[in-house]
Design goal:
Length: about 475
């Protein structure tokens, strides 16, 4: 007998509630994973030669697909960026890349049965709008020739306002994209110069106005706090202007300065970065301003209007996390295409080569491109379920775990529950006979709660992750 979803209807009051306690944040602020998967990508191992073909050919074809296409090209180098990107001004690079992308898609598709149903699509990068309008249209048509797209699917693209032609937004809407995401990061001109991403408020406002007029279902804006020359006052001004523009979703990222890992960050002077105290104050002010503007705190660094599909999915207990972050359609298998792209099929996670030359070489040889692989087991599945529900719904339901996994949670996780006692004493979580709830003071520290249930975390070097806040 299947019970009602225990993660639904946690009350609108719960999801509106978030308390910013600076002392507790400083106490618990440590480095940790973002949990776009569990196990995390640090567990990747080299893949066997025939493994990807077997995984694709034995996939449960009743499970719909989410497609991710990585377009790595950017015309400008943003100094803060840690993404897999290639800086170029050669338009021909995009056309050459699409040839390899089409070949990879055809090859993977040959192992799938029939015309698989696609319910979600995301073009990321890099800068997908580096592609010309004609190339975007050709890519969309190619995908529709290979797959069956749901009429009510979620189809999104990352755009760079500086890389839009006059008709790009209307073309994307006509093709079928219904969600946009783009980076603003900060509106202060001095900050923009320091990170080499200069774009005026007028340009951002024009993009938002056009997108809203065209009827896009949802528009997301990315902001970053902790950038060089940011101040509490300048960040307050940026968030006021962004609230006025009224995006449907906001992603507010903590800048992690890791120049030893990301070469572009070497161009940022550490002396120009705000102090940890000011940085924390910025985040607190952002939370307060967005709460007063009516945004629902989703988790980690995401906010959404209460009528946005992401906020609704959270209140209905249907929110998920994958390699694109929070997602409303978690029942899909994820197929990734392009350099560095990650796929998640059943219990398998696979990654393509991260260097463009390596990716092109393997595709040119008519080989499936995955070079890294994780296969989770039943223990991983249990812990993934716990971690994802803590991060998506702030709750771990003991009855759900008994029914779904056949365990007694209080004994199976006895050590983990014991290790949460300090957080419980500090009012971050509550533990009772029904489960574990993350409370309003603990919501922005949800990753800390999730980390308690991560069996792999102690085996890895902490400096591989950014700080929680």
């Amino acid at each position: 007998m299947t019970t009602a979803n225990p993660y639904a209807n946690r009350t609108a009051k719960h999801f509106d509630g978030i308390r910013f306690d600076e002392a507790l944040i400083q106490k618990y602020n440590r480095q940790g994973p973002r949990y776009t998967s569990y196990p995390t990508a640090l567990e990747f191992l080299p893949i066997a030669d025939d493994a990807e073909a077997k995984i694709l050919s034995t996939r449960d074809d009743s499970v719909p697909l989410s497609l991710y296409l990585h377009i790595p090209f950017c015309r400008h180098l943003c100094y803060y960026c840690g993404c897999n990107k290639i800086i170029t001004k050669k338009n021909s690079d995009a056309g050459d890349y699409l040839d390899y992308l089409f070949k990879e898609i055809r090859h993977k598709k040959s192992y799938l049965k029939g015309m698989p149903l696609v319910k979600q699509l995301h073009l990321g990068g890099g800068t997908p709008t580096f592609l010309s309008d004609d190339e975007l249209a050709a890519l969309w048509q190619f995908l529709h020739d290979e797959f069956n797209f749901a009429d009510d699917g979620d189809y999104s693209i990352e755009i760079d306002p500086r890389e839009l032609r006059p008709n790009t937004l209307s073309l994307l809407k006509d093709l079928g994209f219904n969600r946009l995401s783009f980076g603003v990061q900060d509106l202060d001109h001095k900050v923009q110069i320091a990170v080499n991403r200069v774009q005026s408020l007028e340009l951002i406002e024009q993009v938002m106005t056009t997108a809203q007029a065209l009827g896009y279902r949802s528009t997301n804006i990315d902001l970053i706090y902790g950038l060089p020359h940011q101040s509490i006052e300048s960040m307050n001004n940026t968030i006021r202007q962004i609230v006025r523009l009224s995006p449907d979703r906001l992603s507010v990222f903590n800048y992690a300065h890791l120049p030893e890992r990301f070469a572009a960050q070497k161009r940022i002077r550490e002396a120009d970065l705000p102090s940890p105290v000011d940085k924390l104050t910025m985040f607190g002010n952002i939370i307060k301003a967005l709460g007063e503007a009516g945004y629902q705190y989703i988790g980690i660094d995401h906010f959404a209007k209460p009528n946005d599909s992401m906020a609704i999915a959270q209140r209905n207990g249907e929110l998920h996390r994958n390699f694109q972050g929070y997602a409303i359609l978690g029942e899909c298998d994820l197929l990734g295409f392009g350099v560095s792209a990650i796929s998640q099929i059943g219990q398998h996670i696979l990654q393509n080569p991260t260097a463009l030359g390596d990716y092109q070489a393997v595709v040119a040889q008519d080989k499936l491109p995955a070079i890294k692989h994780i296969q989770s087991d039943s223990k991983d599945e249990l812990r993934r379920h716990v971690i994802m529900n803590l991060l998506c719904h702030d709750y771990m339901d003991f009855g759900d775990l008994r029914e779904r996994f056949g365990i007694e949670p209080t004994s199976y996780f006895a050590d983990e529950i014991a290790s949460l006692h300090d957080m419980a004493a500090d009012g971050l979580v509550s533990i009772d006979e029904h489960g574990i709830s993350i409370l309003s003071k603990g919501r922005i520290l949800g990753r800390n709660v999730a980390m308690v249930f991560d069996e792999y975390l102690g085996k890895k070097h902490a400096n591989r992750f950014s700080r929680v806040i």
